[in-house]
Protein backbone atom coordinates (compact mmCIF):
# COMPACT_ATOMS: atom_id res chain seq x y z
CA UNK A 1 0.00 0.00 0.00
CA UNK A 2 1.20 3.51 -0.76
CA UNK A 3 2.17 5.57 2.23
CA UNK A 4 -0.13 8.51 2.87
CA UNK A 5 1.76 11.78 2.83
CA UNK A 6 1.81 13.18 6.36
CA UNK A 7 -0.42 16.21 6.94
CA UNK A 8 1.86 18.86 8.38
CA UNK A 9 -0.14 22.07 7.99
CA UNK A 10 -2.92 23.31 10.28
CA UNK A 11 -5.54 25.83 9.13
CA UNK A 12 -3.33 28.81 9.84
CA UNK A 13 -0.22 27.35 8.20
CA UNK A 14 -2.19 26.76 5.00
CA UNK A 15 -2.60 30.54 4.74
CA UNK A 16 1.20 31.08 4.79
CA UNK A 17 2.03 28.02 2.70
CA UNK A 18 3.88 30.01 0.03
CA UNK A 19 6.31 31.49 2.61
CA UNK A 20 6.81 28.11 4.29
CA UNK A 21 7.48 26.46 0.91
CA UNK A 22 10.04 29.11 -0.01
CA UNK A 23 11.99 28.51 3.19
CA UNK A 24 11.72 24.73 2.82
CA UNK A 25 13.04 24.96 -0.75
CA UNK A 26 16.23 26.60 0.55
CA UNK A 27 16.63 23.77 3.07
CA UNK A 28 16.10 21.09 0.42
CA UNK A 29 18.75 22.74 -1.75
CA UNK A 30 21.22 22.49 1.11
CA UNK A 31 21.37 26.26 1.72
CA UNK A 32 21.32 25.56 5.42
CA UNK A 33 22.17 28.99 6.87
CA UNK A 34 19.71 30.78 4.54
CA UNK A 35 16.97 28.30 5.35
CA UNK A 36 17.51 28.79 9.08
CA UNK A 37 17.31 32.59 8.71
CA UNK A 38 14.11 32.26 6.67
CA UNK A 39 12.47 29.95 9.23
CA UNK A 40 13.61 32.15 12.14
CA UNK A 41 11.98 35.16 10.46
CA UNK A 42 8.75 33.16 10.05
CA UNK A 43 8.82 32.04 13.71
CA UNK A 44 9.25 35.68 14.80
CA UNK A 45 6.41 36.79 12.57
CA UNK A 46 4.11 33.85 13.33
CA UNK A 47 5.10 32.46 16.76
CA UNK A 48 2.06 30.15 16.81
CA UNK A 49 2.96 28.43 13.50
CA UNK A 50 3.90 24.78 14.16
CA UNK A 51 5.24 24.24 10.64
CA UNK A 52 7.55 27.27 10.82
CA UNK A 53 8.87 26.06 14.18
CA UNK A 54 9.41 22.56 12.80
CA UNK A 55 11.28 24.02 9.81
CA UNK A 56 13.49 25.96 12.19
CA UNK A 57 14.23 22.76 14.14
CA UNK A 58 15.11 20.87 10.96
CA UNK A 59 17.37 23.69 9.77
CA UNK A 60 19.18 23.75 13.12
CA UNK A 61 19.47 19.96 12.86
CA UNK A 62 21.00 20.27 9.35
CA UNK A 63 23.35 23.00 10.51
CA UNK A 64 24.45 20.94 13.53
CA UNK A 65 25.44 18.18 11.15
CA UNK A 66 27.26 20.56 8.83
CA UNK A 67 29.14 22.24 11.70
CA UNK A 68 29.48 19.00 13.70
CA UNK A 69 28.20 21.00 16.64
CA UNK A 70 26.52 19.34 19.63
CA UNK A 71 25.49 22.76 20.90
CA UNK A 72 23.57 23.47 17.71
CA UNK A 73 22.05 20.00 17.90
CA UNK A 74 20.82 20.71 21.43
CA UNK A 75 19.13 23.85 20.02
CA UNK A 76 17.39 21.72 17.41
CA UNK A 77 16.25 19.28 20.11
CA UNK A 78 14.76 22.16 22.12
CA UNK A 79 13.00 23.53 19.05
CA UNK A 80 11.50 20.14 18.16
CA UNK A 81 10.18 20.07 21.71
CA UNK A 82 8.63 23.55 21.33
CA UNK A 83 6.68 22.44 18.23
CA UNK A 84 4.59 20.07 20.31
CA UNK A 85 3.49 22.66 22.86
CA UNK A 86 1.98 25.04 20.26
CA UNK A 87 -1.80 25.16 19.71
CA UNK A 88 -3.50 23.06 17.00
CA UNK A 89 -0.47 21.03 15.94
CA UNK A 90 -1.34 18.37 13.33
CA UNK A 91 -0.74 14.93 14.84
CA UNK A 92 1.60 13.90 11.99
CA UNK A 93 3.80 16.87 12.86
CA UNK A 94 3.80 15.93 16.56
CA UNK A 95 4.91 12.41 15.62
CA UNK A 96 7.70 13.62 13.35
CA UNK A 97 8.96 16.19 15.86
CA UNK A 98 9.04 13.89 18.89
CA UNK A 99 10.49 10.95 16.95
CA UNK A 100 13.32 13.09 15.62
CA UNK A 101 13.84 14.65 19.06
CA UNK A 102 14.23 11.20 20.64
CA UNK A 103 16.55 10.09 17.87
CA UNK A 104 18.82 13.14 18.26
CA UNK A 105 18.84 12.76 22.05
CA UNK A 106 20.05 9.18 21.63
CA UNK A 107 22.69 10.39 19.18
CA UNK A 108 24.02 12.71 21.90
CA UNK A 109 23.97 9.85 24.41
CA UNK A 110 21.11 11.46 26.38
CA UNK A 111 19.37 8.14 26.89
CA UNK A 112 17.18 9.24 29.80
CA UNK A 113 15.87 12.31 27.98
CA UNK A 114 15.14 10.26 24.88
CA UNK A 115 13.24 7.77 27.03
CA UNK A 116 11.04 10.60 28.35
CA UNK A 117 10.38 11.76 24.78
CA UNK A 118 9.48 8.23 23.66
CA UNK A 119 7.18 7.79 26.65
CA UNK A 120 5.43 11.02 25.62
CA UNK A 121 4.88 9.61 22.11
CA UNK A 122 3.47 6.35 23.48
CA UNK A 123 1.21 8.31 25.80
CA UNK A 124 -0.08 10.58 23.01
CA UNK A 125 -0.53 7.78 20.44
CA UNK A 126 -1.33 4.64 22.45
CA UNK A 127 -2.53 2.62 19.46
CA UNK A 128 0.63 3.20 17.38
CA UNK A 129 2.79 0.15 18.11
CA UNK A 130 5.82 1.56 16.28
CA UNK A 131 6.31 4.08 19.09
CA UNK A 132 6.12 1.31 21.68
CA UNK A 133 8.77 -0.57 19.66
CA UNK A 134 11.01 2.51 19.75
CA UNK A 135 10.43 2.84 23.48
CA UNK A 136 11.54 -0.77 23.93
CA UNK A 137 14.80 0.04 22.12
CA UNK A 138 15.17 3.08 24.38
CA UNK A 139 15.02 0.82 27.44
CA UNK A 140 17.47 -1.65 25.88
CA UNK A 141 19.94 1.16 25.22
CA UNK A 142 19.74 2.02 28.92
CA UNK A 143 20.37 -1.64 29.79
CA UNK A 144 16.88 -1.88 31.26
CA UNK A 145 15.84 -5.24 29.84
CA UNK A 146 12.93 -5.84 32.18
CA UNK A 147 11.05 -2.68 31.14
CA UNK A 148 11.89 -3.38 27.50
CA UNK A 149 10.47 -6.88 27.92
CA UNK A 150 7.18 -5.51 29.28
CA UNK A 151 6.90 -3.10 26.35
CA UNK A 152 7.39 -5.88 23.78
CA UNK A 153 4.94 -8.16 25.58
CA UNK A 154 2.38 -5.38 25.27
CA UNK A 155 3.14 -4.84 21.57
CA UNK A 156 2.75 -8.57 20.91
CA UNK A 157 -0.61 -8.55 22.72
CA UNK A 158 -1.79 -5.73 20.44
CA UNK A 159 -0.03 -6.90 17.26
CA UNK A 160 0.86 -10.61 17.55
CA UNK A 161 2.65 -10.60 14.17
CA UNK A 162 4.87 -7.56 14.73
CA UNK A 163 8.27 -8.80 13.53
CA UNK A 164 10.23 -5.97 15.15
CA UNK A 165 8.75 -6.75 18.56
CA UNK A 166 9.35 -10.47 18.02
CA UNK A 167 13.09 -10.24 17.31
CA UNK A 168 13.62 -7.88 20.23
CA UNK A 169 11.55 -10.01 22.57
CA UNK A 170 13.48 -13.11 21.47
CA UNK A 171 16.74 -11.22 21.97
CA UNK A 172 15.73 -10.41 25.57
CA UNK A 173 14.66 -14.01 26.31
CA UNK A 174 18.02 -15.22 24.97
CA UNK A 175 19.82 -12.75 27.24
CA UNK A 176 17.85 -14.26 30.15
CA UNK A 177 19.21 -17.65 29.06
CA UNK A 178 15.71 -18.83 28.07
CA UNK A 179 17.26 -20.49 25.05
CA UNK A 180 14.44 -22.69 23.72
CA UNK A 181 11.83 -19.98 24.35
CA UNK A 182 13.79 -17.36 22.44
CA UNK A 183 13.99 -19.37 19.21
CA UNK A 184 10.45 -19.01 17.77
CA UNK A 185 10.44 -15.25 18.43
CA UNK A 186 13.82 -14.66 16.79
CA UNK A 187 12.96 -16.95 13.89
CA UNK A 188 9.48 -15.57 13.15
CA UNK A 189 10.74 -12.01 13.61
CA UNK A 190 13.49 -12.54 11.04
CA UNK A 191 11.12 -14.36 8.68
CA UNK A 192 8.70 -11.42 8.82
CA UNK A 193 11.20 -9.22 6.95
CA UNK A 194 9.78 -6.22 8.84
CA UNK A 195 11.92 -3.05 8.91
CA UNK A 196 14.52 -3.17 11.69
CA UNK A 197 14.62 -6.97 11.88
CA UNK A 198 17.49 -7.56 9.44
CA UNK A 199 20.27 -7.08 11.99
CA UNK A 200 23.35 -9.24 12.47
CA UNK A 201 22.72 -9.61 16.19
CA UNK A 202 19.46 -11.43 15.61
CA UNK A 203 21.00 -13.95 13.17
CA UNK A 204 23.88 -14.36 15.62
CA UNK A 205 21.67 -15.11 18.61
CA UNK A 206 19.17 -17.28 16.74
CA UNK A 207 21.98 -19.45 15.39
CA UNK A 208 23.59 -19.62 18.82
CA UNK A 209 20.31 -20.63 20.48
CA UNK A 210 19.73 -23.36 17.87
CA UNK A 211 23.30 -24.67 18.35
CA UNK A 212 22.74 -24.90 22.08
CA UNK A 213 19.69 -27.11 21.70
CA UNK A 214 21.64 -29.20 19.16
CA UNK A 215 19.69 -28.08 16.07
CA UNK A 216 21.75 -28.08 12.87
CA UNK A 217 19.37 -25.51 11.37
CA UNK A 218 21.68 -22.97 13.04
CA UNK A 219 23.92 -23.00 9.96
CA UNK A 220 21.01 -22.19 7.66
CA UNK A 221 20.59 -18.93 9.62
CA UNK A 222 24.32 -18.25 9.70
CA UNK A 223 24.37 -18.75 5.93
CA UNK A 224 21.49 -16.30 5.55
CA UNK A 225 23.21 -13.80 7.86
CA UNK A 226 26.32 -14.14 5.71
CA UNK A 227 24.33 -13.64 2.47
CA UNK A 228 22.75 -10.52 3.98
CA UNK A 229 26.21 -9.12 4.62
CA UNK A 230 26.16 -9.35 8.43
CA UNK A 231 28.92 -11.95 8.73
CA UNK A 232 32.26 -12.26 6.95
CA UNK A 233 31.47 -15.96 6.41
CA UNK A 234 29.34 -18.73 7.89
CA UNK A 235 32.17 -19.55 10.32
CA UNK A 236 33.44 -16.01 10.98
CA UNK A 237 30.58 -14.23 12.71
CA UNK A 238 32.12 -11.38 14.70
CA UNK A 239 30.13 -8.13 14.48
CA UNK A 240 32.86 -5.47 15.12
CA UNK A 241 35.09 -5.83 12.11
CA UNK A 242 37.61 -4.07 9.94
CA UNK A 243 36.97 -5.06 6.32
CA UNK A 244 39.61 -6.77 4.24
CA UNK A 245 41.74 -8.34 6.98
CA UNK A 246 43.19 -11.76 6.16
CA UNK A 247 40.74 -14.33 7.54
CA UNK A 248 41.69 -17.89 8.43
CA UNK A 249 40.91 -19.96 11.54
CA UNK A 250 44.44 -21.16 12.37
CA UNK A 251 47.71 -19.20 12.06
CA UNK A 252 51.39 -20.01 12.31
CA UNK A 253 53.79 -17.78 14.22
CA UNK A 254 55.48 -16.83 10.96
CA UNK A 255 52.20 -15.80 9.34
CA UNK A 256 51.48 -13.41 12.21
CA UNK A 257 54.91 -11.79 12.10
CA UNK A 258 54.96 -11.92 15.92
CA UNK A 259 57.74 -14.54 16.04
CA UNK A 260 59.65 -12.76 18.83
CA UNK A 261 56.63 -12.85 21.13
CA UNK A 262 55.98 -16.53 20.38
CA UNK A 263 59.65 -17.43 20.96
CA UNK A 264 59.65 -15.54 24.24
CA UNK A 265 56.46 -17.27 25.47
CA UNK A 266 57.75 -20.72 24.50
CA UNK A 267 61.20 -20.12 25.97
CA UNK A 268 59.79 -18.88 29.30
CA UNK A 269 56.81 -21.18 29.54
CA UNK A 270 57.93 -22.79 32.82
CA UNK A 271 58.35 -19.41 34.50
CA UNK A 272 54.87 -18.35 33.31
CA UNK A 273 53.48 -21.71 34.47
CA UNK A 274 55.10 -21.60 37.90
CA UNK A 275 53.92 -18.06 38.65
CA UNK A 276 50.43 -19.03 37.53
CA UNK A 277 50.39 -22.16 39.72
CA UNK A 278 51.64 -20.12 42.64
CA UNK A 279 48.72 -17.70 42.31
CA UNK A 280 46.29 -20.57 41.79
CA UNK A 281 47.35 -22.21 45.06
CA UNK A 282 47.58 -19.09 47.17
CA UNK A 283 44.67 -16.95 46.10
CA UNK A 284 42.02 -18.94 44.40
CA UNK A 285 39.85 -15.86 44.53
CA UNK A 286 41.98 -14.17 41.87
CA UNK A 287 40.71 -16.70 39.34
CA UNK A 288 37.22 -15.54 38.42
CA UNK A 289 34.62 -17.81 36.79
CA UNK A 290 33.97 -17.17 33.10
CA UNK A 291 30.91 -14.92 33.08
CA UNK A 292 29.80 -14.61 29.46
CA UNK A 293 27.47 -17.59 29.66
CA UNK A 294 29.59 -19.67 27.29
CA UNK A 295 29.69 -22.91 29.27
CA UNK A 296 27.24 -25.73 28.87
CA UNK A 297 28.71 -27.26 32.03
CA UNK A 298 31.82 -27.42 34.13
CA UNK A 299 34.29 -25.16 35.88
CA UNK A 300 36.34 -22.60 33.96
CA UNK A 301 38.10 -19.62 35.53
CA UNK A 302 40.47 -16.89 34.41
CA UNK A 303 43.04 -14.63 36.00
CA UNK A 304 43.39 -11.47 33.91
CA UNK A 305 46.58 -9.38 33.65
CA UNK A 306 45.68 -7.00 30.80
CA UNK A 307 42.18 -6.06 29.70
CA UNK A 308 41.45 -3.76 26.71
CA UNK A 309 45.06 -2.62 26.68
CA UNK A 310 45.05 -1.71 30.40
CA UNK A 311 47.37 -3.42 32.83
CA UNK A 312 45.89 -4.76 36.07
CA UNK A 313 48.66 -3.66 38.45
CA UNK A 314 47.24 -5.66 41.34
CA UNK A 315 47.11 -8.89 39.35
CA UNK A 316 50.66 -8.34 38.08
CA UNK A 317 51.94 -8.20 41.67
CA UNK A 318 51.07 -11.91 41.84
CA UNK A 319 52.97 -12.80 38.63
CA UNK A 320 55.65 -10.07 38.34
CA UNK A 321 58.08 -11.89 36.04
CA UNK A 322 55.36 -12.86 33.58
CA UNK A 323 54.15 -9.26 33.40
CA UNK A 324 57.71 -7.94 32.99
CA UNK A 325 58.22 -10.37 30.12
CA UNK A 326 55.11 -9.13 28.33
CA UNK A 327 55.90 -5.41 28.66
CA UNK A 328 58.25 -5.78 25.65
CA UNK A 329 55.39 -6.65 23.31
CA UNK A 330 52.99 -3.75 22.64
CA UNK A 331 51.14 -5.83 20.00
CA UNK A 332 49.78 -7.72 23.03
CA UNK A 333 49.76 -5.28 25.98
CA UNK A 334 48.40 -2.51 23.74
CA UNK A 335 45.69 -4.63 22.12
CA UNK A 336 42.57 -2.75 23.23
CA UNK A 337 40.38 -5.42 21.68
CA UNK A 338 41.78 -8.27 23.73
CA UNK A 339 43.12 -9.63 27.01
CA UNK A 340 46.11 -11.36 28.50
CA UNK A 341 45.12 -13.97 31.07
CA UNK A 342 45.60 -17.38 32.62
CA UNK A 343 42.76 -19.79 31.97
CA UNK A 344 42.12 -22.89 34.05
CA UNK A 345 39.53 -25.44 32.98
CA UNK A 346 38.51 -28.39 35.13
CA UNK A 347 37.40 -31.83 33.95
CA UNK A 348 33.83 -32.18 32.71
CA UNK A 349 33.71 -28.75 31.10
CA UNK A 350 32.24 -28.06 27.67
CA UNK A 351 32.29 -24.58 26.15
CA UNK A 352 29.52 -23.98 23.61
CA UNK A 353 30.46 -23.16 20.03
CA UNK A 354 30.88 -19.39 20.06
CA UNK A 355 32.44 -16.49 18.22
CA UNK A 356 34.53 -13.60 19.54
CA UNK A 357 33.30 -10.02 19.03
CA UNK A 358 35.89 -8.74 16.53
CA UNK A 359 38.19 -9.76 13.68
CA UNK A 360 40.83 -7.26 14.85
CA UNK A 361 42.74 -9.69 17.07
CA UNK A 362 44.35 -13.10 17.01
CA UNK A 363 44.51 -15.29 20.09
CA UNK A 364 47.59 -17.15 21.29
CA UNK A 365 47.26 -20.13 23.66
CA UNK A 366 50.42 -21.23 25.49
CA UNK A 367 50.09 -24.71 27.03
CA UNK A 368 51.14 -24.73 30.70
CA UNK A 369 49.58 -27.79 32.37
CA UNK A 370 48.01 -30.07 29.78
CA UNK A 371 46.58 -33.51 30.68
CA UNK A 372 47.73 -36.37 28.43
CA UNK A 373 44.34 -36.69 26.77
CA UNK A 374 40.77 -35.44 26.84
CA UNK A 375 41.38 -31.74 26.06
CA UNK A 376 40.73 -30.29 22.64
CA UNK A 377 39.70 -27.14 20.84
CA UNK A 378 37.91 -26.84 17.53
CA UNK A 379 38.14 -23.67 15.44
CA UNK A 380 35.91 -23.67 12.34
CA UNK A 381 36.21 -27.25 11.05
CA UNK A 382 39.56 -28.27 12.53
CA UNK A 383 40.37 -29.76 15.96
CA UNK A 384 43.69 -29.18 17.70
CA UNK A 385 45.18 -30.09 21.09
CA UNK A 386 47.47 -28.08 23.36
CA UNK A 387 51.05 -29.01 24.21
CA UNK A 388 53.01 -27.85 27.23
CA UNK A 389 55.41 -25.09 26.23
CA UNK A 390 53.91 -24.65 22.76
CA UNK A 391 51.81 -21.80 21.36
CA UNK A 392 48.63 -22.35 19.30
CA UNK A 393 47.35 -19.33 17.35
CA UNK A 394 43.79 -18.96 16.10
CA UNK A 395 41.39 -16.24 15.07
CA UNK A 396 38.60 -16.31 17.65
CA UNK A 397 36.21 -14.40 15.37
CA UNK A 398 35.73 -17.87 13.82
CA UNK A 399 33.40 -20.25 15.61
CA UNK A 400 35.29 -22.30 18.22
CA UNK A 401 34.40 -24.86 20.85
CA UNK A 402 36.32 -26.47 23.73
CA UNK A 403 36.09 -29.86 25.49
CA UNK A 404 37.79 -30.80 28.77
CA UNK A 405 37.21 -34.49 29.47
CA UNK A 406 40.54 -35.24 31.14
CA UNK A 407 41.26 -36.57 34.63
CA UNK A 408 42.78 -33.30 35.90
CA UNK A 409 42.77 -29.54 35.29
CA UNK A 410 44.10 -27.80 32.18
CA UNK A 411 46.02 -24.50 32.53
CA UNK A 412 46.88 -22.28 29.57
CA UNK A 413 48.09 -18.71 29.13
CA UNK A 414 46.10 -16.60 26.67
CA UNK A 415 47.65 -13.65 24.85
CA UNK A 416 45.56 -11.61 22.40
CA UNK A 417 47.43 -9.59 19.77
CA UNK A 418 46.33 -7.06 17.19
CA UNK A 419 45.62 -8.59 13.78
CA UNK A 420 48.96 -8.12 11.98
CA UNK A 421 47.38 -6.33 9.00
CA UNK A 422 46.00 -3.44 11.09
CA UNK A 423 47.88 -0.19 10.55
CA UNK A 424 49.51 1.73 13.40
CA UNK A 425 46.76 4.34 12.94
CA UNK A 426 44.01 1.70 13.33
CA UNK A 427 45.68 0.27 16.44
CA UNK A 428 45.69 3.73 17.97
CA UNK A 429 42.14 4.69 17.09
CA UNK A 430 39.94 1.56 17.09
CA UNK A 431 37.59 1.76 20.11
CA UNK A 432 38.18 -0.80 22.84
CA UNK A 433 36.15 -4.02 23.07
Automatic annotation (TrEMBL):
Statement: the UniProt record of this protein carries the keyword ATP-binding: no
GO cellular component entries: endoplasmic reticulum
TPR repeat windows: 129-162
Annotated Aspartyl/asparaginy/proline hydroxylase domain residues: 266-420
Superkingdom per UniProt: Eukaryota
Keywords: TPR repeat
Gene Ontology molecular function: peptidyl-aspartic acid 3-dioxygenase activity
Signal sequence region: none
InterPro entries: Asp/Arg/Pro-Hydrxlase, ASPH, IPNS-like_sf, TPR-like_helical_dom_sf, TPR_rpt
Membership in a protein family: Belongs to the aspartyl/asparaginyl beta-hydroxylase family.
The protein, known as: ASPH hydroxylase
Organism: Alectura lathami (Australian brush turkey)
Amino acid sequence: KKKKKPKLLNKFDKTIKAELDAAEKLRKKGKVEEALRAFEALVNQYPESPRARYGKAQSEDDLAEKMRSNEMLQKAINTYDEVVSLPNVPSDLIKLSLKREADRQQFLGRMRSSLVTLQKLVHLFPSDTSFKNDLGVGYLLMGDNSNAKQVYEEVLRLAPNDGFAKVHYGFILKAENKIAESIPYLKEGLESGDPGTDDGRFYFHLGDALQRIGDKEAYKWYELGYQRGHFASVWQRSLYNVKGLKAQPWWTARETGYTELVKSLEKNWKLIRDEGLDVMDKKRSLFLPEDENLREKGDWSQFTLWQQGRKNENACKGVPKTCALLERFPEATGCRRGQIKYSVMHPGTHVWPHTGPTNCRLRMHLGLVIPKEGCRIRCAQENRTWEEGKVLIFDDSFEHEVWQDAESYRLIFIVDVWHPELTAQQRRTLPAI
